[in-house]
Amino acid sequence: MRRTADNTRAEDDAPVAEAQRTHRGNAVSSALKSWGAALQRKFRAGELGSFPVVLVLATVWIIFQSLNDNFLSPRNLSNLSVDIVGTGLIAVGIVFVLLIGELDLSVGSISGFAAAIFAVLNVNHGVPEWLALIIAVLAGMVAGAVQGFSCAKTRVPAFVVTLAGLLTWNGLMLYILGTSGTVNLDENGLVAKLTSYYFTNDGVAYGLAALCAGTVFLILYLDRRRRRAAGMPHRSLRDIAVRTGGLAVIAFTTAYLLNRFQGLPLALLIFLVVVAGLDIVLRHTHYGRQVYALGGGVEAARRASLNVTGIQTAVLAVSGTMAAVGGLFLASRITSVSQSSGSGVLLLNAIAAAVIGGTSLFGGRGTTWSAVLGMLVIQSIASGMAITDTPTAIQFVITGGVLFAAVVIDALSRRSQEAHGRA
Predict the structure, then answer these.
(1) Among 33, 68, 305, 317, which residue has the fewest nearby CB atoms (within 10 Å)?
(2) Cα–Cα dist 332/316, whole Å
């Protein structure tokens, strides 16, 4: 009798369960269609976001993984995460300059100049590492501020002033290093550990992944509540959950892979903290809004009573500071500073990373995360070429092609935005 009653109850519940599954399926389908329509509208309006660079990065990883199974191995990905830091930090400074519609050509020389100051003070004159490091970073900040003030007061384009700076700071670096030409750093010192230290406890990487996902969810949720209270368009809870879930999957997967090798690199942790901090400065402070406003037009900014001189000086100072910090990480990677520091393709890679990542050459559009994505693309190509024993010349050709494509997309995107009255 009980069995018959249970069967009857199950038969009664079956239609309800089926209806619930159908409702959930329709809700998901509706959400996907809504998301697809919104994405299509953004594309037509030229608001591509980070989609192109993510697509390029995925393509690069798929190609090199198919050519060599070691490309996406924990060891290679861990090395990749450290290799992007030095140049990536310099690229973050370039993002600030590009946002105001200018270009800084001196960052490579400033990075070598700052590294030389640190090496000579610490190794040759016995200055404590922490003090020599602070002096080196301050030197980069002052160098950038001088260039920024000169640009603002003379109204000479930044690329001309910083081209002169490129020669000046490079000459000072050579003078500081003297006849020896190369200074070897202490392999057990503070700066050397910036790129050689790993958090071997698995909980650190997983904790950082959870913190990133939780922070993003909190920021999106608070923004939604603020916009909703003001009667403005806002994200749905489903959209916030999808974005946070996607980030959580990426973060925890990365943590898992890093833990399979040596753990979370200190260099990567510092890089992410700096990028996230400067992103908050750009998007959630009065100074950041002024930077974006200046990128929309210098004359319009002056008529709006913005302190153009102060903003340009501050932006170039940020660029110089990040160049100095990046130079110290590059020196840490090879534990030495030489006359070739800051030269070669460093400047080109830093600019390319910012542009490939989605920062507009026309100013006013981009984030610090653009430098991270762009640097991942460039360094992934370099890493893939090294693993597959491909000539360096081909690497330059591929990187140049990706950069050209990014510039074309940027130009077409701006043209589309102008057609829709958004530029």
Answers:
(1) 305
(2) 24
Say how many domains are in the chain: 1
How many angstroms separate the CA atoms of 144 and 135, rounded?
Answer: 14
> Has residue 400 got a pLDDT over 90?
no
386 vs 417: CA distance, rounded Å: 39
Parent domain of 181: 51-200+262-419
CB within 8 Å of 379: residues ≥ 6 apart: 80, 83, 84, 87
Strands, E, within 324-391: which ranges?
Answer: 336-338
Distances (CA, A) of 281 to 93, 99, 285: 13, 13, 5
How does pLDDT run across 153-201, given as a tens digit for each residue?
888 889 999 999 999 999 999 999 987 788 999 888 999 999 999 999 9
Tokens of 163: 């081209």
Q: Is 262 in contact with 195 (CB distance < 8 Å)?
A: no
Distance CA 314, CA 152 (A): 11
Residue 42's pLDDT is what? 53
Q: Give domain status of residue 225, yes or no.
A: no
Distance between CA atoms of residues 386 and 51, nearest Å: 27
Beta-bridge partners for 337: 183
Phi and psi angles of residue 184, each rounded to the nearest 5 degrees, phi first: -90, 135
Per residue in 222-250, pLDDT (tens digit) is: 888 888 888 888 888 888 888 899 889 99
pTM: 0.86
| 275 contacts 369 by C-beta, under 8 angstroms | yes
Residue 377 included in any domain: yes
pLDDT number for residue 282: 92
Q: What is the mean pLDDT of residues 75-97?
A: 94
Q: How far is CA 291 from the centre of its chain?
A: 18
What amino acid is encoded at 332 in this protein? S
Report the CATH number that the domain containing residue 75 is assigned in CATH.
1.10.3470
Is residue 115 in some structural domain?
Answer: yes
The pair phi, psi for residue 147, each rounded to 5°, is -65, -40
What is the per-residue pLDDT across 15-50, written as a single tens digit (0 to 9) for each? 555 555 555 555 545 544 554 555 555 555 445 667
4 domain-assigned:
no
* Closest C-alpha to 256, from 211, 212, 202, 210: 202
Q: Supply 203's token pair.
A: 């909980």
> What angle (nearest 5°) sits at the alpha carbon of residue 345, between those of residues 150 and 413?
75
- Token look-up 């080109």 returns 348
Residue % of the chain over a pLDDT of 70:
86
